[in-house]
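A note on notation is needed here, since sequence and fold are reported together in a single record. The reader may check this reading against the record printed directly beneath this paragraph.
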Amino acid sequence: MAYWLLKTEPEEFSWADQVKKKVEPWTGVRNAQARNFMKAMKKGEQAFFYHTGEERRIVGIVEVARTFYPDPVEPTGPWGQVDVRAVKPVPKPVTLAQIKAEPKLAELLLVRHSRLSVMPIDDTAWALISKMAGL
């Protein structure tokens, strides 16, 4: 099983919105690398839900409820989306500063390619960040 990190601007779609909606399409991805990561997602895999902007922190965990399918806005184009389900909030949000301060996480795409909105998280990093989050 793979793990992921999904970034969102909380003013556009927040953790509270995800919880309220329960299952929601992860839309608007217009980066080929991020799209390819979404194509690799499998039903049941989990992702950290990350608020960008001023917060810059992991605030929850979601799971893939539906694998990659065409974006209804551009159904014949290359873009698509996955549906994600709220699983739980993290007890202690983990900030980008905390992640950057941990040498074991220096190779994360979150640190190296900060503008990427969808990215994989390896098993070791998932376990470490989960521990940092009080899980």
In short: The first helix runs from residue 15 to 21.
